[in-house]
Amino acid sequence: MTATTTAPRKVTRPRADALRNRERIVSAAREMFTEFGPDVPLDDIARRAGVGNATLYRNFPDRDALVREVVCSVLDRTSEAAEQSLAETGDAFGALERFVHASADERISALCPMVQGAFDQHHPDLEASRERIEQLVEQLMDRARAAGQLRADVGVGDLMVAVAQLSRPPAGTACLTLDGFVHRTLQLFLDGLRAPARSELPGTAVTMEGLRQS
Length: 214
Hints:
TetR_SbtR-like_C; Tetracycline Repressor, domain 2; transcription cis-regulatory region binding; mainly alpha; HTH_TetR; Homeodomain-like_sf; TetR family transcriptional regulator; 63% helix
């Protein structure tokens, strides 16, 4: 008997045009969620992305799936900004400042109403993106603190809450016209983070875990 060999099965990879369509959908959704809020019609997102409704639903079967992908995309882009800041070898506090302003440019505040929505808060993709950004911000703050530039009584939660709050107004309320004010306000906040501290903060440093449990 002659032994037969089975040819290895080829791994099916998404076509380049399919990947581009998916990226266009996510980019269009991010823009429209920022401009109009998370309830913008999916058909409008498909039109802005330049794809048909069938293509959108083939990639994202429902609104929750698309919202989750947009949230993860923004968190991942913000993580990339944090990694770039960590790669800098100069002023540690300056790197932290650049990260905070980059986070505002990613419209991270527009995520707030979406993250508080009905979709699965514990989806593995979302948790992985969230953990990544939290760890990177912690490293940025630790480095600035070790350099004696960041006050000792603030935590990652303090920073991220302030970025989200000060980057408002929320999605759909002329947020694209107020960038100059956002960065001005953020810089005032950042100046208050510098060591030595000029006041005593009430309570204790806020962690992200503490925020989730509150």
